[in-house]
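Protocol step 4 of 5: obtain the predicted structure for the target chain.
Materials: sequence only (see below). No template structures provided, no constraints applied. The aim of this step is simply to have a reference model before the mutagenesis design in step 5. Sequence pasted as it appears in the construct record:
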Amino acid sequence: MANKISIVQQNLRKSNIATNEFKHNISQHINDIILVQEPNIFRPENKPVFSSPSDILYKQELNKTPDTAIVITNKSLIINLIHEFSCSFATTISIQCIDRFIIICNIYIRPNEICTEHIEFIENIINKYRNTPLIISGDFNARHLLWHDKIINRNGTKIFDIIDKHNLIIHNNKEKTCQTSNGNSIIDITLTNDHGCHIVQNWKTTNLTSFSDHFTIVFDISIYNLCRKKSTSTWKFNEKCADWKKYRTSFNPNGCEDLIMSSSRQRNKLFPKNEIPTTAIEIPGGTMI
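Step 4 output (structure tokens):
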């Protein structure tokens, strides 16, 4: 049976208000991984802000503000940041399965600023993982008729060329992904290669924050043989809450000796003399190990 990982994508416009509203609303929905574009930044460290205990993955570059981050809310998943394909405008992770990895690249390209660096980055990651399920999703600020937008812009032309060259699959439907005073557009795109095509399911848009002009994108990843971390108990006894006075009055000082004698008698009933198993070794006090 396949395991489903819930992916949520949101451009937060670097807004503290949008971030707080989104965090509140997302807590009421099933989610495992959150792809964030334009995250709220904590100054002066230049670090994306979300919430603990979630893990926030991103690449910190000198004198550059991170435009993307990935928040891991499902702690059982085995996920690693891929530094080779993470930078100020992209964050890439691997999800470990028994026999392979799933690669997710979260990307943000500013309006009309697509350049050779962006194009080479996308083509390099496509070539690197051509035999691995690859998902590239994010805010490309790219408009094109191919993904049902009404117009074509510069970013859209360049992204179209990449899609056409590498036979990428577009998972968008006709739903708008951005709404401004100038109208609606489809600039947030989810792409996969052939190996990642069939694992992306239930793609749709919703609205988890009213303080961003981007709609929320949600979709599932269906994965067989998903690896998970082994859970370990973190329970601890709080000895400060123990009623030690009650313990002392209830404790029978002869209890241990009585228990030893009782164990010895029970042993003799089960194993008459000279028939004690070789695995039973006597130690002082009559106990057995």
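Step 4 remarks: Confidence is low (pLDDT under 50) at residues 278-289. The longest helix spans residues 255-270.
Proceed to step 5.
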